[in-house]
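Appendix B, record 7
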Amino acid sequence: MPSFTVHTPGPYGEKQLKEWSYSQVAEVNGRIELSGQGGYHPKTLDYPKGVTLEEEIERAFNNVTFMLKAVSLDWSHVVNVDTFHVPEPDGYIVASTTEVAKQFAKRMPGYKPT
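Structure tokens (predicted):
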């Protein structure tokens, strides 16, 4: 029988469980899966207007860090990351992709995830 545990760490985890009926972290036989983490503010849980694209992406990465720590992991345990980008006014995603790559290099300097 597989081992299965779900976690709803922090205020955002509790909010998502209550409002949308899903968990932020699931563990199946030792494999950890995180739900998507956006650039929400960790205390107010909102997406404030006026935040730069770079700040929003860094905040999303910080939120992933929080979820990893909640299950005693860090970025060295990450092997796969899916990112989703909203097209910029020019129709491209260059600025957001550049910032995501910067965050990958900062948080996983010794290797590259899929």
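Remarks on this record: The domain at 4-107 is CATH 3.30.1330.40 (60s Ribosomal Protein L30; Chain: A;). The beta strands are 4-7, 25-28, 31-34.
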